[in-house]
Amino acid sequence: MSIAIFVLMEIECFFLLRPPTTPVFSRSLFPPSNQPNNKIHRCSKITAKTNFHQDDGHDNLFFQSAITRASYRFRETLRSEPLFVDPYAGCFAPPELELNENLSQNLHHYCIGTRFIDDQLLSATKGVDGAKQVVMFTDGMDTRAYRLKWPSSTVIYDVSPQAVFKKASQKLQDVGAKIPRGCLLLHVPLESSDMQQLLCDKGFSGSRPSIWVFQGFPVTNLAHFKDILFMVSSLAMKGCLFLGELPVWLTETQMGIKSTVEKWMYDIFMSYGFRVRIIGYDEVAKNLGQTHVDGDSDCLLFVAEHLRFSDDEMEIWRRQFQRVEEEGDEEGFEEL
């Protein structure tokens, strides 16, 4: 008979079960798994204390959704062979987080998507020619800026709810979390009246490579997501990637009838200049050597390539064309 072990932990971000895993660099959509075989002691229940209490007024939907995702990352970190290690997820764990005895077997779709996105980010940003602008639409508690090994000079823009990001950043700062040397994290509040302009004001350039991620962002409806597609299409250079997890409920048409998902995705994304591909969670899990996946996902994992020029690229072409025309006019005038 197994004996249940109850552990009471005051979660701090220096609570590291192991050092973060070495990132996998690959341009393939399915890089080979390279996880260490580190083992941890399993327990039937872990209770984690956190500073996010309901009496602080942080029990709104944004906070609760972000805390739920952080809990998934925390559970994944505690697995004997995790897909990734998030040493900071425990900082946001709910007051009582229960982990069952099948912890090492359970695998959540969100964690599969997180590992897939991690690999794509590291692949796209590596090397001299890699994208050094990373724009992430998140829930405000995303820890990638701290836990991934970013190349020097990478600028990370986190677009998320102001209150969640502010509280999470303070907690991370309190426990000593730091951005990799030579990198920069900038926040763009979800509540901004003009997120596109604010991104540019903070230094984003549509004439330099970038990669865009959508995971956990509290999109309200299809029109809201279309606004995001329009913004990404305006700012991202041709060939840049936009990837992440799209809520399944966005695919629902009138009267709750679902359209063909592939066609719906193709039509929506192509109308903004993106060629999209839906990635199966099972396919990703299989390539990572995983088999036990919990239930059905409420999101669609996708990767989209931008096929249009950004506004900045078009402006550069316009100026060059104008200069050539002006030089031609001057030469013609001299001949006369």
Structural summary, described in words:
34% of the residues lie in helices and 16% in strands. It is an alpha/beta fold and 336 residues long. The protein folds into 2 domains: 81 residues, no CATH class; 207 residues, Vaccinia Virus protein VP39 (Rossmann fold, 3-Layer(aba) Sandwich). The chain is built from 9 helices and 9 strands. The N terminus is likely disordered. It comes from Tagetes erecta (African marigold). Keywords: Methyltransferase, Transferase.
The helix content is 25-40%
In DSSP terms, counting alpha (H) and pi (I) runs of 4 or more, how many helices? 9
Contiguous uncertain segments of 5+ residues: 1-28, 32-49, 53-59
The CATH class of the largest domain, by name, is Alpha Beta
* Termini separation: 101 Å
CATH architecture of the largest domain: 3-Layer(aba) Sandwich
Widest beta sheet: strand line-up: 5-4-3-6-7-9-8
Question: Number of domains in the coordinates?
Answer: 2
CATH topology tier name of the largest domain: Rossmann fold
For the secondary structure, the number of strands is: 9
- Could you tell me the mean pLDDT? 81
Cα-based radius of gyration, to the nearest Å: 22 Å
Order of helices and strands: EEHHEHEHEHEHEHEHEH
Sheet-strand content, in percent, reads: 15-25%
Corresponding CATH superfamily of the largest domain:
Vaccinia Virus protein VP39
- Which structural class do you get from the secondary structure elements? alpha/beta
Main β-sheet description: 7 strands, mixed
